C-alpha cells in the first residue's frame, strides 16, 4: 500500500490524526440558549481569525460562530508572528463574540478569559498541567522544561464584536516542532490526543467562563476570572523583561495583575509599572 501525503484531503490520509467531524461537533455543542450557533470545519485556510473577521464585517453571522481549520497556511500570533503545523496536528479555531452588555474598556480581558478556558478544558480532557504566560500563551512542561504549546489572538470585528483565535499543538512530535522552544500536548504526556474531546472541552469551558464574565458586566473580580487567571499564571513571581512599543523595555518582577488585566512589574527603581501590551520574556524560573 502506497503511503499518502499527510496534507492529502482524504479522511484517512493520516490514520494517527483523524479529521474532525463537524456534524458531531454541532450536535454536541450547539443548543438552544447556548453560546454556539454554528461550527464549521474546513480542510485548510490561511487564518481562521482573518476569515471570521471578514465574515463578521460582511454581516450575516451571529455571535457564537465557530470556524475550525484542519490546517492553517498563514496563521498569525501576536505581533503578526507567523507559524505553521502539519495538517490535523493541532486545534486551530476562532470564535466570534459580541459582549454588548460589557463596557468596551473591559474587553481586554477576553484573551485572558480564553486562556483560562483553554487551560481548564485541556486539564479536564487531556490530563495535562498547563500554565498561562501573560498575556496569551499556553505553556506545558516537556522534559522538565517549560515550552509554549499554544497561543491566543484577539481581533476586533466591527464595532460590536471580537474574534478570538486559538492555536494548540496537540500531536506534534519533536521533529515537527517549528522551533526547539515549542511543545505539544503529546510531548507533555497527554492522556489522549483525540482532538474531538479536546475541542469540545475547551469550547464548553469558554462558554462557561464567557457566560460568567458577561453576567458580571465584565467585572473580572466578581466572576472570579482575575483570581483564577492569577492562580494559573506562570509569569507572576518571576523576573521578566517587557518589550514595549516604541523600542522601550522594562525589567523587574511581575507582581500582580490589575483590574484591567495589565501585568504590574516592580522595577529596581521601586516603581510599579502596569503593562497593557508588549512581549514578555521570562528571565528567571518560578
UniProtKB/TrEMBL annotation:
<dbReference type="GO" id="GO:0004077">
    <property type="term" value="F:biotin--[biotin carboxyl-carrier protein] ligase activity"/>
</dbReference>
<dbReference type="Pfam" id="PF03099">
    <property type="entry name" value="BPL_LplA_LipB"/>
</dbReference>
<keyword id="KW-0436">Ligase</keyword>
<dbReference type="Pfam" id="PF02237">
    <property type="entry name" value="BPL_C"/>
</dbReference>
<dbReference type="InterPro" id="IPR045864">
    <property type="entry name" value="aa-tRNA-synth_II/BPL/LPL"/>
</dbReference>
<dbReference type="InterPro" id="IPR004408">
    <property type="entry name" value="Biotin_CoA_COase_ligase"/>
</dbReference>
<feature type="domain" description="BPL/LPL catalytic">
    <location>
        <begin position="24"/>
        <end position="214"/>
    </location>
</feature>
<dbReference type="InterPro" id="IPR004143">
    <property type="entry name" value="BPL_LPL_catalytic"/>
</dbReference>
<protein>
    <recommendedName>
        <fullName>biotin--[biotin carboxyl-carrier protein] ligase</fullName>
        <ecNumber>6.3.4.15</ecNumber>
    </recommendedName>
</protein>
<dbReference type="InterPro" id="IPR003142">
    <property type="entry name" value="BPL_C"/>
</dbReference>
<keyword id="KW-0092">Biotin</keyword>
